Amino acid sequence: MKxxxxxxxKNYQSICWSTKGFINVIDQRKLPFxxxxxxxxxxxxxxxxxxxxxxxxxxLIGVTAANGLVLAAKSCEDKEFEExxxxxxxxxxxxxxxxxxxxxxxxxxxxxxKIVNKNESVRENxxxxxxxxxxxxxxxxxxxxxxxxxxxxxxxxxxxIMTICNAGALATVDIGTALAPIRKAHSDGxxxxxxxxxxxxxxxxxxxxxxxxxxxxxxxxxxTDNSAGHIIKNGLIDLVIVGADRIVLNGDVAxxxxxxxxxxxxxxxxxxxxxxxxxxxxDTTTRSGKDITIEERDGKExxxxxSVNNEQDPEPKxxxxxxxxxxxxxxxxxxxxxxxxxxxxxxxxxxxxxxxxSITMLLENSK
Length: 367
Prior knowledge:
Layout: E1 2-5, E2 8-11, E3 15-17, E4 23-26, E5 37-40, H1 43-51, H2 58-74, H3 81-96, H4 103-114, H5 122-152, E6 160-164, H6 179-187, E7 193-197, H7 204-215, E8 220-223, H8 228-233, E9 239-242, E10 246-247, E11 253-256, H9 259-269, E12 273-276, H10 300-303, E13 304-307, E14 317-320, E15 333-336, E16 343-346, E17 349-352, H11 355-365
């Protein structure tokens, strides 16, 4: 992704390996106020990065977890296989506890753990794990590129597109899911405008998606979440594209809280509503959205907001914004039913209704 630093434009990916063999990630807690890198040197710090949302977005969580298992494996070069395997299993268990809703986390951990082979040496296992984690990273980038190619077919010159949360390069490794078609349309010279729901309470739309669009020179407006209905009803939106944290077999989609509301608004006002996601975001074991675990986060995220005073105070702080003695709820995700979704943009093409049938065919062809 493009990042403007001073008078230069540099290209960054959301995750990479440091020269010392540690995991470097863009610290998304600090954006857009400052651009900083967080280094995870072990599994504990990798778990912290995922749980505390230094990294977020289903595909990036999956890649980060896979690299966390690489760190665990690399710490075992002088171990016997049994101890090596026990350390890996423990690391996988700890990583699995960090976030409950995004299925990429569990799919990536399972993918890495499947290749552990007791008939090979520890060093061979470490090499295989490193290779598989890198394959996952590269596949994520390529899948996002293909999502951009297919999704771009839906975008016409002059279109006005709405999105929620951040499903861009920051949520993947590069390019993004929901932002991939938008990036592709822009690079093809199409004139587009993006309406970005701020996405309370953590403001991933206002803080992260708008930051990405600014650096790409894509025209956009940040809007309050509760103005989306007014804007859609008054004919200012041509289509909505959102990301996904989990897509189950019947086509129901878990995504950032507020996505379901957007889908209802689109259905009422006859606006196309698309979900963009890589294959790793499909949950092959869950039939219906009612069986998805919805993460309930700390209420302080609702009671407070990130802010800065001025240019001399660049460090983001959390400031109380409403009555702190009143209780509040903070579900991080909601589930959009399949019936509200026009289609799902995948690296294999655009899935159309009926989604359950389309998903079954997609997964069979992806084996």
